[in-house]
């Protein structure tokens, strides 16, 4: 069974078809990296996986269960299995790092506060922020904020993590600390779909790379295939620009 399966998924915004008949499978423990130019539909694809966007045609199947729009309880159950990390952190500004991490398990999953607090402290320590738990986001650097965001997603104990350009808003010297946390997650066997322009990360960590352009999968393969021997001209052109 795949952790993520999309079958001929089509997504439109009005007259704009973002992608058509997109079929992608992700296995358990796999790290799939999606690369491609701006506007190619990468974010929209990720958002369709966890129902932040609804699809027009096709199927999205998560751990064997199809996301059926009309079944709200099912949607809630399936989407809580997926954590998502965005480019712009999206932390609650009026909550400390610890409160940010504790929020969803308590309000969404109705978990016991003590249990959640213990987990949140462990997660913040794991992402290297053991000494920043009581800081508000405004007092944290971009890299620290993004690590809080990762800890917050992990607090829901997801089976799948989706990352949408998690380092694109960061100063260059802060990118590494976030990528290192993601690398560690990958090495622990987390199933991950990562949209990124960090080709070094893709080379080191990805099991498979997809190059998307204009809503189509132009090429996919292992990092070795994609980076050392791309078959398509469009892939070569893109890689020339970003590497
Ligand atoms: P990427 O993440 O690869 O840069 P996106 O998925 O954000 O691409 O966007 C793909 C296309 O869909 C773009 O043309 C974008 O303008 C369009 N788009 C994205 N979100 C919306 C929306 N909510 N409404 C209308 N068009 C959108
Ligand atoms: Mg995007």
Gist?
With 243 residues, the protein is an alpha/beta fold. It is built from nine helices and ten strands.
Written account of the structure:
There is one protein chain. 40% of the residues are buried. Helix 4 (113-126) packs across helix 5 (142-154). Helix 6 links the parallel strand 7 (160-164) and strand 8. The protein is α/β, with parallel strands linked by helices. The model has no long low-confidence stretch (mean pLDDT 97). The chain is globular. 38% of the residues lie in helices and 25% in strands. The strands form two sheets. It has a six-stranded mixed sheet with strand order 6-7-8-3-9-10, with helices on both faces. It has a four-stranded antiparallel sheet with strand order 2-1-4-5, with helices on one face. The structure holds adenosine-5'-diphosphate (ADP) and magnesium ion. Residues 13, 16, 18, 36, 38-44 line the site of adenosine-5'-diphosphate.
Task: Record the SSE blueprint.
Layout: E1 4-13, E2 16-26, E3 31-35, H1 42-49, E4 57-62, E5 65-66, H2 72-79, E6 82-85, H3 97-107, H4 113-126, H5 142-154, E7 160-164, H6 172-187, E8 191-195, H7 199-205, E9 208-213, E10 216-221, H8 223-228, H9 233-242
Parallel strand pairs: 3-8, 3-9, 6-7, 7-8
Antiparallel strand pairs: 1-2, 1-4, 4-5, 9-10
Helix pairs in contact: 3-4, 3-5, 4-5, 5-6
Bound molecules: adenosine-5'-diphosphate and magnesium ion.
